[in-house]
Each structure stands twice: as structure tokens, then as C-alpha cells.
């Protein structure tokens, strides 16, 4: 009943709950300072307070909360990776995601859809089989399926063989899901705030001070903060902030663009990805088609949107779903992605002591939010990088031990 | 459509070009693994001025472009010979 709902909404008995205050007093010292108030930084703050009882923590965000890549990704969660390191890591993330709404008492609209990675060539089919076998071996539900079953799972797909790139098979990953990305950040922020963490928005870090190779303070536009430890989680600006701390990263900043269509009645259940066609699409709980492709061709610190991108994306999308030709694009945006040479993130120690890095998340950072936050918190609390994160160390490049995680991005780059 | 001016072919659609990464000095064969790792993997990746190798793909012509990564402006393009003396480019600094 709409009137009943209105009455409930305006009732004094059920006041709207304020999740966390817009600003709070800044102290001049914190045990832990987290640079970056996106999903990763807030998750680290949350687990530091909840699991390790460390509540003297400040999260510094130069804009507003979760306004960077946390708000710009396409909200896909999956663990069908290629390397055992990647599969273990993202599998833990999927398991954490599944229970987040309960844990937060805040609906993150987690929706398990199934994830189809289409193969249009023999080579893609071979990679799909390889990924399926690695996944099965490690206990992750993925399997290779063929056109008959694809048509059952996603009858909307154009399965005709009379096209440029017919669909030969697909890697089907049942746990593949989407979630409301803002909700994830807000849930973590509220949980962290309730446990005593300070969240400072509009607070930009302008310098990092070290003492004997150990981080001692950060300078901000609101003054200097002494600190015991620092986590840097500033996707998109990683190289610039690392420069303040005095080291270089194996990262190039490259824009990734995405867009959504006008909302329509729900018709598409699974998340559909095609590496050969450089496109991925899912339908959000609001009914909008969320679409993306590969990263831009050159480095740029600008979240602009281009016509080139949309032309390419739509051309490919229409090969898969020709009936969408009349759909309108509602919004478009870009985000600056940290691209690493081996398509794997960088987590853990840096040349500066007690200064921990969480970067290099390229086009696959959202799905790692819970596990990364949890394990980075463990790193800070124990002063030791957990085994799960060790393969992603910054110094792997000095040892020439790259990860080669081509499964990291949904589409080829 | 974004236009880049190729020193050989004039103004062309930027889709015809491939970025080859920043211009930087290559370590020698005697240099340490760390120096090579730095050269191969690590990047200054600045927000602002960059000097890069670019290639016009249809003509396979490599040249130098200067860009601003904060504004997406192409500041200047010129032949690599302006940056490197001819004898140094033998064997390729690329």
C-alpha cells in the first residue's frame, strides 16, 4: 500500500538512520592512516577495527566517499581465474561477498547470476577449458559448456553460426554475481565508523614524511598527521601518491570506460563476457544494462568518455544481442585504472617501512574489495604479509616472478 | 575522433597510432638485474607532461610525441632524429 509506506517513511517512530557523519574532528596522530576512502580502504579500516581491535584509524579521502573507481566499476564478482594464486585469492573474496549483506545489516543487492565467458575461436575454447580445469581442481565451480547449454542458460544470445564470430562454447562460472558497489563501500564505512574509525572526506594527502626509512607522518590539506602505519589504497592515483613516499610502481594509468542503457524489464540473467569481441554486459537490479569493454589505448589521468569507445562497444554488443539496436544509452563514464605489466595487483611491503601498498587493481578491483581489505588489515595488525598476498608483492618484478594473470580482466587488453 | 599529427603523414585519426611507452634510457648488458627490472617494469607514470614513442601503424613510422596526461592534450610531435643523434639510433633506442 503506497500510503502505508509513506506513513512509515514520515513516522517519527522510524527515523531515517544516519550511516556516518559527514565530517569528524581530525586528531594529530593515529596508529593507522589509510589513504583512500574507496571500497578497499574502507574495508581495511573495517577489518582492522572488527577483527583486530585496532580502532585508532583514520581514512583520508580527497573527494567524497567511494567516489573514485569504487563508483565507476561494473560491479561484477567472480573467481574463475587462471593462476592458482588468483583463484585462491578471489575465491575467498566471493565467499566474503556472499555474506556481506548479513554482516553489515545493509543490503548490498548481491545477486548471483552465473557468468558466461564466451569463446569464439579454438584458442579461446582452449583457454576456457584450461581455466575450467584449474578452477575445478581448486574447488571453484566453473565448467566448459557448448552452444546447446549456452542457449538454455541465455536464450537471448545470438547463437547463429552465420555471423562473423559464431559462439563455439563458453566458460560457465555459476557463482558469478553482481552487487551494488556503493552499498559495499557504505556498509564498510558504517561498520568502521561504529567501531571508532575516523573517516575524513575532502582531505587530500600532499606529502609523506619518513624517518630512517620508516613512515612517520602524512601531510594533508587539513594539516599534518603523525602515524604509526600507512595503507595506500588510491586506485587511479597510485603512482602519484607513491611518488610522495619516494618510490616507483610498475603501473600505468589508463582510462577504462563504461556505460549503462535505459532501464528495461529484466530479461538478462547471466553476466555475459566476450573476450574476442571486447565486451561485457549484465543487467542491474534497476534494469539497466551495464556495459563495458577494454581499456583505452594510451595512458591518461582523465575519466572522460569517448565516441570511439561507444561505437566499438555497441558494434560488438549488437553481434551478441541484435535486438538491442533500439536501446538508448542513459549514462556514460570513465575511471582511471592502474594497469600492471602482468595483470595482477600489487599488495604488501614497499621500500618505505610500515607503508603498505594496495594498488595495481587495473580493471578487476571491485571483486577483491572484501578479501583485500581483510588481508591488508591482517598485514598491518601483524606486521607480516599473509601467505595469500605474498605472490602479489611489489618486489616480484625485481625477481622477474610476474604472475601472468590473463584471466584478471574480463576482456583482453 | 581525436587527431594526432604524424610528422610523416600529417594529421590522422588517433586510432591509426600505437603508443610505444615513455622515452627512457636503456641499461647496458653489464647493468644489474635491478636496473633492468626498473627499465622493463617500473614507470614514472606522471600526471602531466610525458615524452613517448608512438608509431603510425599503417606506415610503420616511429616518432616522438609529447602529451599532457592530465588534460589529454597532444603538445608536440616530431621525428625521433630530433631527440637522438643519428649514430645513437642505430640498433634502436626503442
Explain the layout of strands and helices.
The complex is a heterodimer of chains A (413) and B (94).
Chain A: H1 2-10, E1 29-35, H2 39-52, E2 57-60, E3 76-77, H3 84-98, H4 100-104, E4 111-112, E5 115-119, H5 122-137, E6 142-145, H6 147-153, E7 169-173, E8 177-178, H7 181-194, E9 198-200, E10 205-211, E11 214-220, E12 223-232, H8 238-245, E13 252-261, E14 271-274, E15 279-283, E16 289-292, H9 307-320, E17 329-339, E18 346-348, E19 355-359, H10 369-382
Parallel strand pairs in A: 1-2, 1-12, 2-9, 5-14, 12-19
Antiparallel strand pairs in A: 3-8, 4-8, 5-7, 6-7, 10-11, 11-12, 13-16, 13-17, 14-15, 15-16, 18-19
Helix pairs in contact in A: 2-7, 2-10, 3-10
Chain B: E1 3-6, E2 10-13, E3 17-22, H1 33-41, E4 49-56, E5 61-68, E6 73-79, H2 86-89
Antiparallel strand pairs in B: 1-2, 3-4, 4-5, 5-6
Please name the CATH topology of chain B. Answer: Folate-binding fold
Helix and strand content put the structural class of chain A at: alpha+beta
CATH architecture label of the domain at 112-176 and 253-339 in chain A: 2-Layer Sandwich
CATH topological fold name of the domain at 112-176 and 253-339 in chain A: D-Amino Acid Oxidase, Chain A, domain 2
How would you describe the overall organization of this protein?
The complex is a heterodimer of chains A (413) and B (94). Chain A has 413 residues and is α+β, with helices and mostly antiparallel strands. Chain A has a domain of 152 residues: D-Amino Acid Oxidase, Chain A, domain 2 (2-Layer Sandwich). In chain A, strands 1, 2, 9, 10, 11, 12, 18 and 19 form an eight-stranded mixed β-sheet that branches. The longest helix of chain A is centred in the N-terminal third of the chain and has 16 residues. Chain A starts with a helix and ends in a 31-residue tail after the last helix. In chain B, a hairpin with a 4-residue loop joins strand 4 and strand 5. By secondary structure, chain B is mostly beta strands. In chain B, the strands form two sheets. In chain B, strands 3-4-5-6 form a four-stranded antiparallel β-sheet, with no helix packed on it. Chain B has a two-stranded antiparallel ribbon with strand order 1-2. Chain B is globular. Chain B has two helices and six strands; from the N terminus they run E-E-E-H-E-E-E-H. Chain B has one domain: Folate-binding superfamily (Folate-binding fold). The chains are: A alpha+beta (413), B mainly beta (94). Chains A and B meet through loops of A and helix 1 of B.
